[in-house]
Amino acid sequence: MKTRVDDINENIYNMKTSDSSKKKYGLSEEIIKEISKEKGEPDWVLDIRLKAYDFYKSLPMPTWGPDLSDLDLDNIASYVYASHNMVDKWEDVPEDIKNVFDKLGIPEAEKKSLSGVGAQYDSEMIYHNIAKDLESKGVIYENFDTAIKKYPELIKKYFSHLVPLNDHKFIALHYALFSGGSFVYIPKGVKLDNPLQSYFRLNSPGAGQFEHTLIIVEDNASLEFIEGCSAPGYNELNLHCGCVELFVMNDSYLKFSTIENWSKNLLNLNTKKSIVGENSKIDWVMGSFGSKISMLYPMTILNGDNSKCETTQISFAGKGQNLDTGIKVIHNAKNTSTRVNSKSISKDGGICTFRSNVWVKPQADNSRVALSCESLMLDSESRSDTVPVSNIENEDVIFSHEAKIGKVNDDSIFYLMSRGLSEEEAIGMLVRGFADPISKEFPVEYAVEMNRLINLELEGSIG
User: Fold this and answer.
1) Domain boundaries, position 32
2) pLDDT greater at residue 189 or residue 101
3) What is the pLDDT of the chain when averaged over all its residues?
4) Within a domain: residue 320?
């Protein structure tokens, strides 16, 4: 019987294809210029890359979170050259790559319930498609590299305006090396019935992935966007350093869901930020699995009166994993509200940390903030921490923060075992019950995937 996750030789997320791709390692001005030339970018994009590189060299490494000393950019492939062009017909995707995405269920989900799909393999998008009826309504859903060339004025207006080049060292790295990702534009008054989805697959050992996602939801519009991420396991360190910029205008709605299932040899140093207008709402739904280290704190600026942010997230850290996640919110207007429901599970010495940073500005009268953090530890070796930071500059605020940390209840395990379950089955049932409120927030296909990931992580939780 397999008793540990490490004993599982193969699963659908650990598929590998042959890696004969040409790669560019390290970081220098020459490498950045070569990447930009390979993509045929205009000069203004190269200027952004080079400015970001200057910031990267001057900005310090973060010292307050997980230890990042294993990262050596000289040993990271900063760009993996595409071996084929992007296509808009699934049958035209190269067979070995198509096989990976087929097993992950990407084309099947597109047929059943999605309005459009993008699929990225290493540094470049290999497939992008949108339902024809949406194009007639003015909806834009493009590979980000393509959007730069097709919609330059729109990109210039928003790109890097929400997440600045010098925000921190790793966002500067991202802007120096960004490649792939998606651009979404939802015109005024357009409300999508079905989600758009982008799936990011990091296949090459020792490679980095630096996709950029930019979404604009105009007034009185709505969108659900789903991100999926995965990578097979290698003995070499991989790096994910993406960026997401979300603009939610007045009277609009955006739901942004992410399931991350990176391999446990990967550093996930991702940045996500949104700004929300009057009478609008953003829902963040996130599941963090895999990765050796994660540092991810999606930020929301509630910039319009009556704007809302709701965050639902779960993380699962096993042996050798340090998942440092959380949220940042700025209340910048009246009658704004934030609600957070965060859960974490840790086992075999895994570390989960939840950080919150909430700033209620003086003008944010009648604001509401409710934070709830629950942590479940499956053994005495694991660790869970909550690190809240609050800056409240207005007295007309209702603020609550609830945190619970505990272990699996022995009495509950005994009760379930008395009903015929094994100890492993009993723990699995309790863990899935703990995670169920989060699972329900995901689209059906992703809820199934989350439960599958929990089952995989639970292998070997006994003995």
Assistant:
1) 5-296
2) 189
3) 86
4) no
Position 103 pLDDT exceeds 60: yes
Q: Which residues pair with 288 in a beta bridge?
A: 260, 315
Residue type at 446 in one-letter notation: Y
Tens-place pLDDT, residues 252-278:
999 999 988 888 899 999 999 999 999
Tokens 């096989």 correspond to what residue? 99
**DSSP summary character for residue 191:** B
- Would you call 220 exposed, middle or buried from its count of C-beta atoms within 10 A (0-12, 13-18, 19+)? middle
- Give the three-state DSSP class for 425: helix
Task: Write the DSSP symbol of residue 75.
Answer: G
Reply yes or no on whether the pLDDT at 352 is more than 50: yes
Confirm if 43 and 49 have CB atoms less than 8 A apart: no
Residues 6+ apart with CB under 8 A from 175: 48, 49, 51, 52, 160, 165, 243
Q: Is the pLDDT of residue 12 over 70?
A: no
Number of domains in the chain: 2
Paired sense of beta strands 140-143 and 351-360, if any: unpaired
DSSP label of 207: B
Domain boundary among 296, 323, 342: 296
Residue 112: strand, helix, or coil: helix
In 3D space, the residue among 296, 222, 302, 246 whose CA is nearest the CA of residue 65 turns out to be 296
| In a domain? residue 289 | yes
Instruction: Look at residue 314 and give its three-state secondary structure.
Output: strand
**Residue 313, pLDDT score:** 94
pTM of the entire structure? Answer: 0.89
The residue among 457, 58, 44, 416 whose CA lies nearest residue 261 is: 457
- Count other C-beta atoms under 10 Å from residue 4's C-beta: 13
Residue keyed to tokens 């280290």: 293
Q: What is the torsional sign of CA 78, 83, 85, 90?
A: negative
> pLDDT digit string (tens) for 227-253?
888 777 777 899 999 999 999 999 999
Residue 417 lies in a domain: yes
Same-domain pairing of 272 and 414 = no
Are the C-beta atoms of residues 284 and 329 closer than 8 Å to each other? no
Instruction: Answer yes or no: are the C-beta atoms of 150 and 141 closer than 8 Å.
Output: no
User: What is the Cα–Cα distance from 226 to 118, expressed in whole angstroms?
Assistant: 10
Question: pLDDT (tens digit, 9 = 90+) per residue, 290-322?
Answer: 899 999 999 999 999 999 999 999 999 999 999
Q: Which of 276, 296, 316 is the last residue of a domain?
A: 296
